[in-house]
Amino acid sequence: MKGVILRICHLYPELMNIYGDRGNVIALERRCAWRGIRVEVSRLSIGDPLDPTSFDLFFIGGGQDREQMLVCEDLSSEKGAALRQAVEEGAALLSICGGYQLLGKSFLTWTGEYLPGIGLFDAETVGGDTRFIGNVAVRCTLEGAEGILVGFENHSGRTRLGPGCRPLGKVVYGHGNNGVDNTEGCVYRHALGTYLHGSLLPKNPLLADWLILQALRRRYDLEALPPLDDTLEEAAHRAALRLTREERGPLRSLRRLAAR
Ligand code: GLN
User: For 121-144, what is the mean pLDDT?
Assistant: First the structure.
């Protein structure tokens, strides 16, 4: 794919990076490089201005409440508005856990701090007295990326979605958004929020390619991406799913739950 360039903006890489979240950016870079797509990665942090027209794909990882407070303040500047504008104009975005929470409307931590979000997602998060920790499997309902996603969650926040966005999928194993309504993550235009750490994208290549394709379509007329040999990625996916199943129950439960 000669002449095609993907411009990635990695937000707050040193503050928001739990359980190898930055591996998501590496996976995006590699999957592009294997297809001959040039990738430019810009890392923006506290105080750096954000030009909404300069990037095709944004990434923000997870973080503890303390880091989230710093990032929350920075996003409340024009940076949050610029990020919203970029998504409205077609940019793709992946946000994980603490990053996902800050892109919603608000996060009230368990210790009572109120963190206003940028309102990109119609979602509100409230901290709980226990943490949701463990391997997760999700039946992804995103058009073009349907299948089982695997990952790892560790959060106290319970997120409820409003009518302005839809879930990324249904929880098969684990807790997802709130442990109650069976939803996991959220989708608004080409922006995704999810609780799945891991790193997520190396072992969920379908989702990685969905993001790359949506991001490139912002500036290029593309039908699809050339397929890759995903033997290793699929093995990693199977291994993660096996681990989840061993922790949480037999395969027939997975099939039954996945059909819900
Ligand atoms: N601090 C947030 C919570 O506990 C997010 C944690 C994370 O990103 N893993 O809900």
Answer: 97
pLDDT tens-digit series, residues 183-240 = 999 999 999 999 999 899 999 999 999 999 999 999 999 999 999 999 999 999 999 9
The residues assigned a catalytic role are 97, 197
Pocket flag, ligand 1, residue 18 (CB < 6 Å): yes
Q: Whose CA is nearest to atom 5 of ligand 1?
A: 98
CATH number of the domain within which 212 lies: 3.40.50.880
Q: Is the CB of 175 under 6 A from ligand 1?
A: no
Q: What is the 3-state secondary structure (H, E, C) of 113-150?
A: CEEECCCCCCEEEEEEEEEEEEEEEEEECCCCCCEEEE
Q: Collapse the DSSP code of 18 into the 3-class scheme (helix H, G, I; strand E, B; otherwise coil) and give the result.
A: coil
Q: What's the CA-to-centroid distance between 20 and ligand 1, angstroms?
A: 14
Helical axes 231-248 vs 205-217, angle rounded to 10°: 130
- Cα(5) to centroid of ligand 1, in Å? 33
Domain span holding position 85:
5-259
**pTM value surpassing 0.70:** yes
Please give the tally of structural domains in the chain.
1
pLDDT, tens only, 17-76: 999 999 999 999 999 999 999 999 999 999 999 999 999 999 999 999 999 999 999 999
